[in-house]
Design goal:
By secondary structure, the protein is of the alpha/beta class. The protein has helices at 2-35, 66-74, 91-109, 120-131, 154-167, 183-193, 239-271, and strands at residues 51-55, 78-81, 113-118, 136-142, 202-206, 224-227. A six-stranded parallel beta sheet has the order 2-1-3-4-5-6, sandwiched between helices. The radius of gyration is 19 Å and the shape is globular.
Protein backbone atom coordinates (compact mmCIF):
# COMPACT_ATOMS: atom_id res chain seq x y z
CA UNK A 1 0.00 0.00 0.00
CA UNK A 2 2.79 2.38 0.94
CA UNK A 3 4.59 1.65 -2.32
CA UNK A 4 1.60 3.04 -4.18
CA UNK A 5 1.17 6.12 -2.01
CA UNK A 6 3.59 8.34 -3.87
CA UNK A 7 2.48 7.26 -7.38
CA UNK A 8 -1.13 7.76 -6.32
CA UNK A 9 -0.31 11.27 -5.18
CA UNK A 10 1.45 11.91 -8.48
CA UNK A 11 -1.58 10.59 -10.36
CA UNK A 12 -3.87 12.88 -8.43
CA UNK A 13 -1.62 15.86 -9.04
CA UNK A 14 -1.45 15.12 -12.77
CA UNK A 15 -5.24 14.98 -13.01
CA UNK A 16 -5.53 18.21 -11.01
CA UNK A 17 -2.95 19.84 -13.29
CA UNK A 18 -4.96 18.80 -16.35
CA UNK A 19 -8.10 20.24 -14.76
CA UNK A 20 -6.32 23.53 -14.05
CA UNK A 21 -5.04 23.60 -17.63
CA UNK A 22 -8.57 23.05 -18.91
CA UNK A 23 -9.87 25.87 -16.72
CA UNK A 24 -7.11 28.22 -17.90
CA UNK A 25 -7.78 27.35 -21.53
CA UNK A 26 -11.48 27.93 -20.96
CA UNK A 27 -10.79 31.40 -19.59
CA UNK A 28 -8.67 32.15 -22.65
CA UNK A 29 -10.59 30.32 -25.38
CA UNK A 30 -14.24 30.74 -24.45
CA UNK A 31 -14.38 34.48 -25.28
CA UNK A 32 -12.80 33.76 -28.67
CA UNK A 33 -15.34 31.02 -29.32
CA UNK A 34 -18.30 33.15 -28.24
CA UNK A 35 -17.18 36.00 -30.53
CA UNK A 36 -16.77 33.73 -33.54
CA UNK A 37 -19.58 33.63 -36.16
CA UNK A 38 -19.80 29.85 -35.77
CA UNK A 39 -21.27 30.36 -32.30
CA UNK A 40 -24.30 32.18 -33.69
CA UNK A 41 -26.80 29.69 -35.13
CA UNK A 42 -27.90 30.43 -38.66
CA UNK A 43 -30.76 27.94 -38.45
CA UNK A 44 -32.16 26.78 -35.09
CA UNK A 45 -33.83 23.86 -36.86
CA UNK A 46 -30.65 22.63 -38.52
CA UNK A 47 -30.27 19.62 -36.25
CA UNK A 48 -33.85 18.43 -36.83
CA UNK A 49 -33.89 16.79 -33.41
CA UNK A 50 -30.92 14.53 -34.16
CA UNK A 51 -29.60 12.95 -30.97
CA UNK A 52 -25.97 13.52 -30.01
CA UNK A 53 -24.13 11.66 -27.25
CA UNK A 54 -21.14 13.50 -25.73
CA UNK A 55 -18.27 11.47 -24.24
CA UNK A 56 -15.65 13.37 -22.18
CA UNK A 57 -11.92 12.78 -22.12
CA UNK A 58 -9.80 10.92 -19.59
CA UNK A 59 -10.21 12.38 -16.11
CA UNK A 60 -13.12 14.63 -17.11
CA UNK A 61 -16.89 14.38 -16.74
CA UNK A 62 -19.90 15.49 -18.71
CA UNK A 63 -19.58 19.08 -17.53
CA UNK A 64 -16.43 19.47 -19.63
CA UNK A 65 -18.71 19.18 -22.70
CA UNK A 66 -21.15 21.89 -21.55
CA UNK A 67 -20.30 24.40 -24.29
CA UNK A 68 -20.53 21.76 -27.01
CA UNK A 69 -23.95 20.81 -25.63
CA UNK A 70 -25.12 24.44 -25.67
CA UNK A 71 -23.89 24.90 -29.26
CA UNK A 72 -25.74 21.79 -30.38
CA UNK A 73 -28.98 22.72 -28.62
CA UNK A 74 -28.99 26.14 -30.27
CA UNK A 75 -29.00 24.41 -33.65
CA UNK A 76 -31.83 22.00 -32.95
CA UNK A 77 -29.82 18.92 -31.98
CA UNK A 78 -30.63 16.93 -28.85
CA UNK A 79 -27.35 16.45 -26.97
CA UNK A 80 -26.96 14.22 -23.92
CA UNK A 81 -24.10 13.31 -21.62
CA UNK A 82 -22.68 9.81 -21.55
CA UNK A 83 -22.90 9.56 -17.74
CA UNK A 84 -19.66 7.60 -17.41
CA UNK A 85 -18.28 9.77 -14.61
CA UNK A 86 -14.69 10.98 -14.91
CA UNK A 87 -13.70 8.47 -17.58
CA UNK A 88 -11.12 6.62 -15.48
CA UNK A 89 -12.82 3.23 -15.44
CA UNK A 90 -12.27 -0.08 -17.19
CA UNK A 91 -12.45 0.29 -20.96
CA UNK A 92 -14.88 -2.56 -21.54
CA UNK A 93 -17.17 -1.47 -18.70
CA UNK A 94 -17.23 2.12 -19.98
CA UNK A 95 -18.08 0.98 -23.51
CA UNK A 96 -20.88 -1.14 -22.04
CA UNK A 97 -22.24 1.96 -20.31
CA UNK A 98 -21.92 4.07 -23.46
CA UNK A 99 -23.78 1.38 -25.38
CA UNK A 100 -26.62 1.44 -22.86
CA UNK A 101 -26.76 5.23 -22.92
CA UNK A 102 -26.65 5.20 -26.72
CA UNK A 103 -29.62 2.85 -26.86
CA UNK A 104 -31.52 4.99 -24.37
CA UNK A 105 -30.88 8.21 -26.31
CA UNK A 106 -31.82 6.56 -29.59
CA UNK A 107 -35.16 5.58 -28.04
CA UNK A 108 -35.65 9.11 -26.69
CA UNK A 109 -34.94 10.78 -30.03
CA UNK A 110 -36.51 8.16 -32.28
CA UNK A 111 -33.50 7.56 -34.48
CA UNK A 112 -29.80 6.93 -34.78
CA UNK A 113 -27.44 9.09 -32.72
CA UNK A 114 -24.19 10.93 -33.39
CA UNK A 115 -21.40 10.30 -30.88
CA UNK A 116 -18.85 13.04 -30.16
CA UNK A 117 -15.91 12.00 -28.00
CA UNK A 118 -12.84 13.88 -26.84
CA UNK A 119 -9.46 12.20 -26.32
CA UNK A 120 -10.08 8.81 -24.67
CA UNK A 121 -13.78 9.52 -25.06
CA UNK A 122 -13.29 9.49 -28.83
CA UNK A 123 -11.87 6.00 -29.01
CA UNK A 124 -14.41 4.72 -26.50
CA UNK A 125 -17.06 6.18 -28.81
CA UNK A 126 -15.43 4.43 -31.75
CA UNK A 127 -15.61 1.10 -29.91
CA UNK A 128 -19.29 1.74 -29.23
CA UNK A 129 -19.88 2.52 -32.92
CA UNK A 130 -18.18 -0.73 -33.93
CA UNK A 131 -20.47 -2.64 -31.56
CA UNK A 132 -23.73 -0.87 -32.40
CA UNK A 133 -23.62 0.66 -35.90
CA UNK A 134 -27.40 0.29 -36.01
CA UNK A 135 -27.65 3.08 -33.41
CA UNK A 136 -24.93 5.43 -34.72
CA UNK A 137 -25.58 8.07 -37.38
CA UNK A 138 -22.05 9.49 -37.23
CA UNK A 139 -18.90 9.66 -35.13
CA UNK A 140 -16.70 12.64 -34.22
CA UNK A 141 -13.35 12.16 -32.44
CA UNK A 142 -11.29 15.03 -31.03
CA UNK A 143 -7.63 14.32 -30.40
CA UNK A 144 -8.26 10.60 -30.02
CA UNK A 145 -5.17 8.35 -30.48
CA UNK A 146 -7.10 5.49 -32.02
CA UNK A 147 -4.01 4.00 -33.68
CA UNK A 148 -2.39 3.44 -30.27
CA UNK A 149 -4.33 4.30 -27.10
CA UNK A 150 -1.18 3.80 -25.02
CA UNK A 151 0.80 6.15 -27.27
CA UNK A 152 -0.35 9.25 -25.40
CA UNK A 153 2.03 11.38 -23.34
CA UNK A 154 3.97 9.11 -20.93
CA UNK A 155 2.75 11.06 -17.91
CA UNK A 156 -0.88 10.37 -18.84
CA UNK A 157 -0.20 6.68 -19.41
CA UNK A 158 1.64 6.54 -16.07
CA UNK A 159 -1.41 8.00 -14.32
CA UNK A 160 -3.62 5.39 -15.99
CA UNK A 161 -1.31 2.58 -14.87
CA UNK A 162 -1.28 3.87 -11.28
CA UNK A 163 -5.08 3.91 -11.28
CA UNK A 164 -5.06 0.34 -12.56
CA UNK A 165 -2.74 -0.70 -9.74
CA UNK A 166 -4.99 1.02 -7.22
CA UNK A 167 -7.93 -0.98 -8.55
CA UNK A 168 -6.16 -4.16 -7.46
CA UNK A 169 -6.45 -2.88 -3.88
CA UNK A 170 -10.22 -2.93 -4.19
CA UNK A 171 -10.84 0.71 -5.09
CA UNK A 172 -13.93 0.59 -7.35
CA UNK A 173 -14.58 2.53 -10.56
CA UNK A 174 -11.02 2.48 -11.92
CA UNK A 175 -9.49 0.83 -14.97
CA UNK A 176 -7.67 -2.38 -14.10
CA UNK A 177 -4.45 -3.99 -15.26
CA UNK A 178 -6.35 -5.98 -17.89
CA UNK A 179 -6.84 -2.66 -19.71
CA UNK A 180 -3.10 -2.68 -20.50
CA UNK A 181 -2.52 -6.35 -21.16
CA UNK A 182 -4.43 -9.58 -21.48
CA UNK A 183 -7.72 -10.43 -23.21
CA UNK A 184 -9.46 -7.10 -22.47
CA UNK A 185 -6.61 -5.08 -23.97
CA UNK A 186 -6.23 -7.38 -26.97
CA UNK A 187 -9.95 -7.36 -27.72
CA UNK A 188 -10.27 -3.57 -27.56
CA UNK A 189 -7.12 -2.86 -29.58
CA UNK A 190 -8.33 -5.28 -32.25
CA UNK A 191 -11.72 -3.55 -32.32
CA UNK A 192 -10.09 -0.12 -32.59
CA UNK A 193 -8.11 -1.27 -35.63
CA UNK A 194 -11.22 -2.63 -37.34
CA UNK A 195 -12.79 -0.66 -40.20
CA UNK A 196 -15.73 1.47 -39.24
CA UNK A 197 -18.99 0.18 -40.69
CA UNK A 198 -19.75 1.88 -44.03
CA UNK A 199 -23.02 3.25 -42.64
CA UNK A 200 -21.13 5.18 -39.91
CA UNK A 201 -19.37 8.26 -41.33
CA UNK A 202 -16.66 9.62 -39.05
CA UNK A 203 -14.66 12.79 -38.50
CA UNK A 204 -11.27 12.69 -36.76
CA UNK A 205 -10.01 16.09 -35.59
CA UNK A 206 -6.32 16.42 -34.76
CA UNK A 207 -3.73 19.10 -34.01
CA UNK A 208 0.02 19.15 -34.48
CA UNK A 209 0.14 21.33 -31.36
CA UNK A 210 -1.38 18.51 -29.28
CA UNK A 211 1.12 17.73 -26.50
CA UNK A 212 -0.92 14.81 -25.11
CA UNK A 213 -2.01 12.69 -28.07
CA UNK A 214 0.54 12.62 -30.93
CA UNK A 215 -1.33 13.83 -33.98
CA UNK A 216 -0.15 10.92 -36.12
CA UNK A 217 -2.01 8.51 -33.81
CA UNK A 218 -5.27 10.41 -34.35
CA UNK A 219 -5.37 9.82 -38.11
CA UNK A 220 -8.07 7.19 -38.26
CA UNK A 221 -7.80 5.62 -41.74
CA UNK A 222 -11.56 5.05 -41.82
CA UNK A 223 -12.51 8.64 -40.94
CA UNK A 224 -12.29 12.02 -42.60
CA UNK A 225 -9.31 13.65 -40.88
CA UNK A 226 -9.30 17.43 -40.33
CA UNK A 227 -6.46 19.42 -38.82
CA UNK A 228 -7.00 22.38 -36.50
CA UNK A 229 -4.60 24.45 -34.41
CA UNK A 230 -5.40 23.71 -30.80
CA UNK A 231 -4.07 22.25 -27.59
CA UNK A 232 -5.33 18.83 -26.58
CA UNK A 233 -7.74 19.85 -23.84
CA UNK A 234 -8.78 22.99 -25.70
CA UNK A 235 -10.18 21.27 -28.80
CA UNK A 236 -13.77 21.36 -27.59
CA UNK A 237 -13.44 25.12 -27.12
CA UNK A 238 -11.78 25.90 -30.43
CA UNK A 239 -13.91 27.63 -33.09
CA UNK A 240 -12.15 25.69 -35.84
CA UNK A 241 -13.53 22.44 -34.45
CA UNK A 242 -17.09 23.77 -34.72
CA UNK A 243 -16.40 25.12 -38.20
CA UNK A 244 -15.28 21.63 -39.26
CA UNK A 245 -18.09 19.81 -37.46
CA UNK A 246 -21.04 22.03 -38.44
CA UNK A 247 -21.53 21.02 -42.10
CA UNK A 248 -20.97 17.34 -41.39
CA UNK A 249 -23.42 17.28 -38.50
CA UNK A 250 -25.97 19.14 -40.62
CA UNK A 251 -25.59 16.57 -43.41
CA UNK A 252 -26.02 13.69 -40.97
CA UNK A 253 -29.12 15.38 -39.53
CA UNK A 254 -30.62 15.70 -43.02
CA UNK A 255 -29.80 12.06 -43.79
CA UNK A 256 -31.41 10.89 -40.56
CA UNK A 257 -34.52 13.01 -41.09
CA UNK A 258 -34.87 11.71 -44.66
CA UNK A 259 -34.53 8.08 -43.56
CA UNK A 260 -37.04 8.52 -40.76
CA UNK A 261 -39.51 10.16 -43.16
CA UNK A 262 -39.11 7.32 -45.64
CA UNK A 263 -39.50 4.73 -42.89
CA UNK A 264 -42.63 6.43 -41.59
CA UNK A 265 -44.10 6.61 -45.10
CA UNK A 266 -43.42 2.90 -45.55
CA UNK A 267 -45.17 2.10 -42.29
CA UNK A 268 -48.22 4.15 -43.34
CA UNK A 269 -48.28 2.42 -46.71
CA UNK A 270 -48.26 -1.01 -45.09
CA UNK A 271 -50.95 0.01 -42.63
CA UNK A 272 -53.24 1.13 -45.44
Amino acid sequence: MMTLLQPAREAGETIRTAAREHLLLALLDIPRLLRHPIWRPADPEEGAGLGVLLVPGFGFGDRSMTLASAWLKARGYRPAGSRIGFNVGCTTELVDRIDARLEQHAEETGGRVVIIGQSRGGWLARLAAIRRPDLVRGLVMLGSPVLDPLGAHPKVVRVARVLARLSTLGIPGLMDLDCFTGPCYDENVKALAAPLPPEVPALAVYSREDAIAPWQLCLDPYAECVEIRSTHTGMGLDPDFYVAAAPRLARWARDEAREQTAEHAGELSQAS
